[in-house]
Amino acid sequence: MNTPTSTISPVSPLRIGDIELDVPVVLAPMAGITNTAFRRLCREYGAGLYVSEMITSRALVERTPESMRLITHHESEKTRSIQLYGVDPKTVSEAVTMLVAEDRADHIDLNFGCPVPKVTRKGGGAALPWKITLFREIVEAAVTAAGAIPLTIKMRKGIDSDHLTYLEAGRVAEGAGVSAIALHARTAADYYSGHADWAAIKTLKDTITSVPVLGNGDIWSAADALRMVAETGCDGVVVGRGCLGRPWLFGDLAAAFRPSTGSGNQNTPGQIEPTLGQVADAFRRHAELLTEFFDSEERACRDVRKHVAWYFKGYPVGGDLRASLASVVSLEQLDELLATMDPDQPYPGIGAEGQRGRAGSPKKTSLPERWLDSRDIVGAERSNLTEGEGDTSGG
Question: What are the protein's GO molecular function terms (predicted)?
Fold first, then answer.
């Protein structure tokens, strides 16, 4: 464990509707990442709420095989959390109704934060709250359809610095009866670049008074999470890219947020510092869980390849071995490759820390034609809504 760098008074349990989390931590939905396998792995290390990758409401209503597979939870997942994406109030309502009627979810989140061009150019994700009338219709319809199931939203600050939406959208969502609001403190134009604007989280928290506000953006360690809570007053944190290749981060977070014993009324954030052997074991466990999830060893090995750089960041694993891991085709081959590593290699320190996952640079957000002309949804824009419901996952 590292020497503690800061302290914070114990954070209260996070209540989202009738769900109480003693550790106020949520795994952010990430397309192609937060499937059942990764959620189970993260839960083995820590605690919190673990949300599915984003699922398109149209695909769910049409019961496409992929969407039905993505909403399937392992029996060990006691709080089943699903994130939906949609641009049509009727379709979103139908998807929520289906999840509730068939008892497929204990928590539903709506995505209003995706910055990926294929989503925003159809008016979805982070682009949608600009059309505040449409946003209100979707959220109100979803809350009504959810009934007693807690429904939350996750959003960004807005489209760009000239078109911020988060405060108005937050007030609308609060009025519609959502159970919590999460803010990724970047605009769509920011994508994943630069630094998250934690001051915006504080502003939203000061504005929204009746439901929890969760902060998201640049949480790379438990110390970051505690600092976000201290600086913004948010009720909990949403962790995305920081846990890529390090599911044990949820163990760090659980230890940091739970009241410490024998240390008064303060928590001290430490850090799990895995040896190379422990990282290899986690990587192997991930591949094993993916095999169960896909019911295909070959597909699992293809999928786990993208995690290689994240898991072994900073560790003395040579380029040839990394390349071999990134082309693995079977668990037997994976075991042979992992066996060539020195399991006693210690945690490399700063080399394994910091940002991981995509970052890129700011970019102009792709939007439907004349999207910014009005805050209302009008004419052809409404009739074209279903065009934005085509993909199972938003990227």
Answer: flavin adenine dinucleotide binding; RNA binding; tRNA dihydrouridine synthase activity
- C-alpha 134/C-alpha 221 separation (Å) is 37
Q: What is the CATH number of domain 17-271?
A: 3.20.20.70
**In the chain, where are the structural domains located?**
17-271, 276-343
Residues 6+ apart with CB under 8 A from 128: 87, 112, 134, 135, 138
Handedness of CA 50, 54, 60, 63 (dihedral sign): negative
Instruction: Please count the other Cβ atoms lying within 10 Å of the Cβ belonging to residue 147.
Output: 11
Q: Report the C-alpha gap between 34 and 56 in whole angstroms.
A: 15
Stretch 286-306: mean pLDDT: 97
Q: Is 234 a catalytic residue?
A: no
Dihedral over alpha carbons 27, 31, 37, 40 (to 10 degrees): 10
How many residues does this entry show for the chain?
395
Inter-residue contact 223 to 241 (CB < 8 Å): no
Tens-digit pLDDT profile for residues 49-70: 999 999 999 999 999 999 999 9
Among candidate residues 42, 114, 234, 243, the one labeled active-site is 114
d(CA 367, CA 159): 9
Answer yes or no: pTM beyond 0.85.
yes
Closest C-alpha to 241, from 184, 170, 315, 287: 184
CA dist 336 and 324 (Å) reads: 11
